């Protein structure tokens, strides 16, 4: 099962009234359960995985959700496109992708969200300046959770 398919299942569970979904394909089984505003993923693999997944950053085929903040502010909120773990650096010994006050451009990597041992680079869809980083390094993030506030330029 592809990561894209799993993310779609998570989105469907989050948006619908369904509280649990279970999908089984051959030796691969995914169970998604919704409990108290959180979505839990339980993954079971009956047979050994026959392919290797590289733990290197990859670009997403789609961009993170970008929405405008309330009308009282001209700030843009950049949200997480998936459930995972937020990382502000490419590795522990490297500097942060962005800091408060940094100017960013469309396509610039802002952070990494790790989901199921895949490190997904989250790129900006806007040009602007980082006003606030809303999550702590190495913390879990939910689908559609605000990550950054950006002042557009």
Describe this structure in words.
With 153 residues, the chain is mostly beta strands. The chain folds into 2 domains: 3-45, no CATH class; 57-152, OB fold (Dihydrolipoamide Acetyltransferase, E2P). The protein has 1 helix and 13 strands; from the N terminus they run αβββββββββββββ. The chain has one helix spanning 3-15; strands at residues 20-25, 28-35, 38-45, 57-59, 66-68, 76-79, 84-87, 103-104, 109-115, 118-123, 128-133, 139-141, 146-152. A 5-stranded mixed sheet has the order 4-10-9-7-12, with no helix packed on it. Strands 5-6-13-11-8 form a 5-stranded antiparallel sheet, with no helix packed on it. Strands 1-2-3 form a 3-stranded antiparallel sheet, covered by helices on one side. Residues 58-62 and 68-72 have low confidence and may be disordered.
Which percent band covers the strand fraction?
35-45%
How many beta-strand segments?
13
- Work out the count of structural domains: 2
Q: In percent, how helical is the residue content?
A: under 10%
Outline the low-pLDDT stretches: 58-62, 68-72
By helix and strand content, what is the structural category?
mainly beta
Sum up the structure in keywords.
single chain; 153 residues; mainly beta; OB fold (Dihydrolipoamide Acetyltransferase, E2P); 2 domains; 5-stranded mixed β-sheet; 5-stranded antiparallel β-sheet; 1 helix
Question: In terms of topology, how is this protein built?
Answer:
Elements (H helix, E strand, L loop, with lengths): L2 H13 L4 E6 L2 E8 L2 E8 L11 E3 L6 E3 L7 E4 L4 E4 L15 E2 L4 E7 L2 E6 L4 E6 L5 E3 L4 E7 L1
Parallel strand pairs: 4-10
Antiparallel strand pairs: 1-2, 2-3, 5-6, 6-13, 7-9, 7-12, 8-11, 9-10, 11-13
